Structure prediction request, 250 residues.
Amino acid sequence: MDAPPPTLLSTTTLLSLLTTLLLLLTAYLASQHLLPTHTARNLRLLYIWHLFSGLTHLTLEASFLYNCFFTYIPLALSADYPHPASSSSSPAGAFLARPDRAYGSAHGDNPAARLWQEYARADRRWAGADLTVVSLELLTVLVAGPLALYVAEAIRKGAAASGRGGAGLWFWGTVLATGELYGGFMTFMPEWLSGSPNLDTSNFMFLWVYLFFFNTLWVWFPLYMLYEAYGHMVEAFTSAEGREARKKLT
Prediction:
């Protein structure tokens, strides 16, 4: 008898989507309250994006790391441990060098674990402590999250002072955007090269909402940031070259 199809709009699904929308609403309301009314539309968009991205990294993705490091179940080891055949999972390369434990959100019952169990229906790597994913998420939470908030604050200060980006905005925005694009590449390229064994693309919700929409947000907006940064950098260099040329003529 065929198994019933997965429930696409479960309570956990709705709560996960509402959590994301709440973070986005927080970023939008902050832009309305903290940015001057004359702020350029592109800067306002980038402010909302970087604040939303930073909050997402430091809350939702931080909760993923919490479950990777602190949520686990014991695994049985046979009497001849540490012989390679003595564990239900090979000791070689075990997360945190603990072959007697299985780490990850799949083994938790806290709200964050349930959220990642929901996403893991589309990408099974997020149910456990996949070494590549955890390594990338450590950089994302510890570096990209604070840096995104820094970029958002640079936009706010620059908009308040002159209507333009603050000092360092375009350099650090470029660094962050490049890192986000590289992180996305390294998250999915190894999976694609191995035939996508962990991805479930069997229905609209998993493929187009969980995998495509939520992940490509961190493609389109970083690309837009690079586009804006390139324009401002070219403008700055052109202006500097013009000043040097005028100095030589005087």
User: Anything to note?
Assistant: The chain has six helices and two strands. The longest helix spans residues 204-249. Confidence is low (pLDDT under 50) at residues 86-92.
